[in-house]
């Protein structure tokens, strides 16, 4: 049996198999890094894999808060501090009813390798709560964030652990969390990133993940000798931070982004999405995508109840490049075959692990370009790291400065992933390239730091 096979077997016995998505993420990495483990016995000698798949600690706490009817509500909060070999734990907070320890372990594990790929001094972590921000008033959000930070502040700090946003946590929530941290600790420090610009946020943090995914794709297509995105039809899923800014950057470079989705349905506008209207619906009104067709009657809205069986409507739209930017496992094997049949040439994961393992395998076996999340969506955490640098130096960089640095980081990640894949005999496979390059750097640091 191969090294990868041996390693997977070993972890099958572990109770981590109960955490489905965590196991899925771990299995992918183990399958990729076989050539690295075979190339140098030190990674086995120092039991890097065994040490890397167990978080340094998982903090779980109760969050009690008062809703607008003065009724007491109880949620669960988490912070998974996974690995700090390369720098302080760094990774977002997710507020969504589906949040549990397994999901946060999967996201934290991915974050270790993603942060490693940026080349910046940041370790990996993730956190959040099963709190559902949907339908809550601003005051309820504020009260929840305050209660959450009352517990979380004990475990974080600018050189310890620096959380950021994720699904359900944007500038508003980060602002409330920061305000509470400041009140409790009397310390004005860069303990969170994704802060509003007015008090320490970096310009371009909101745009960074979506823009970064497009910069990565441009570089990947160039390396692989494919046609550029200019003038090409692109499909995007999601209608949140990552999706909106991916659409924005695609439009800026002359591509035609024709779709977006939310948890209720898919919107398709063959003339290209009206981004100003979409932002108004999602950011100002926090309403359903169905509102869009009241203005643009020629666009098509498909509610999830009408999706083709076993598939998602958005991946059945013919396109040159696809950008899944909503959530994990939103693109399955049937979706992958629909994309392939319709002539898609490139898939870029803006969301974390949006493709199922079967979808990834189908895409790779048909030789499409495939940009895995931990490389393609690293732009967000890269600019978060820039925010930490600006906070530490008490300075502000311009939008253009941050944008230029982001572009360079994304191009460097892409080049490094491509070269690593080539070096380890899997040329063109960006999944293996990203896993090997990300793992190697963390592993070398862990070995250097001792056990
Ligand atoms: P947002 O909360 O801003 O948006 C998420 C979008 O995805 C919304 O349109 C939401 O729909 C949709 N969505 C969420 N859950 C589901 C679901 N179960 N089924 C269908 N649609 C769903 O999050 P972000 O844009 O920030 O994050 C999107 C993805 O990108 C996540 O995987 C996140 O981990 C990843 N990511 C984000 C980064 C960032 O900088 N924000 C950085 C790196 C990765 P609705 O509006 O109906 O809720």
Kindly describe this structure.
The chain is an alpha/beta fold. The protein has two domains: 3-189, 3-Layer(aba) Sandwich (Rossmann fold); 208-367, NAD(P)-binding Rossmann-like Domain (Rossmann fold), CATH 3.40.50.720. It has helices at residues 3-12, 20-32, 34-39, 42-45, 48-52, 101-118, 138-152, 171-185, 205-223, 241-252, 275-284, 292-295, 333-341, 357-365, 373-376, 379-393, 399-423, 430-449, and strands at residues 57-66, 72-83, 89-95, 124-129, 161-164, 233-236, 256-257, 259-261, 265-268, 300-303, 321-323, 346-348, 369-371. A five-stranded mixed beta sheet has the order 1-2-4-3-5. The protein has a five-stranded parallel beta sheet with strand order 7-6-11-12-13, sandwiched between helices. α10 (241-252) links the parallel β6 and β7 (256-257). α9 packs parallel to α17. The longest helix is centred in the last third of the chain and has 25 residues, at 399-423. The model has no long low-confidence stretch (mean pLDDT 95).
Overall pLDDT = 95
In DSSP terms, counting alpha (H) and pi (I) runs of 4 or more, how many helices?
A: 18
As residue ranges, the low-confidence spans are none
Question: From the structure provided, what is the oligomeric state, counting identical versus distinct chains?
Answer: single chain
Q: How does the overall form come out from the CA principal axes?
A: globular
Largest sheet: 5 strands, mixed
Q: How many domains comprise the coordinates?
A: 2
Instruction: Give the structural class.
Output: alpha/beta
Q: Which CATH architecture of the largest domain would you pick?
A: 3-Layer(aba) Sandwich
Strand content: 5-15%
Chemical compounds bound to the protein: NADPH dihydro-nicotinamide-adenine-dinucleotide phosphate
Task: Please compute the radius of gyration using only Cα atoms.
Answer: 21 Å
CATH class annotation of the largest domain: Alpha Beta
The CATH homology group name of the largest domain? Leucine Dehydrogenase, chain A, domain 1
Q: According to CATH, what is the topology of the largest domain?
A: Rossmann fold
> What is the straight-line distance between the termini?
29 Å
Spatial strand order of the main sheet: 1-2-4-3-5
Number of E-type strands: 13
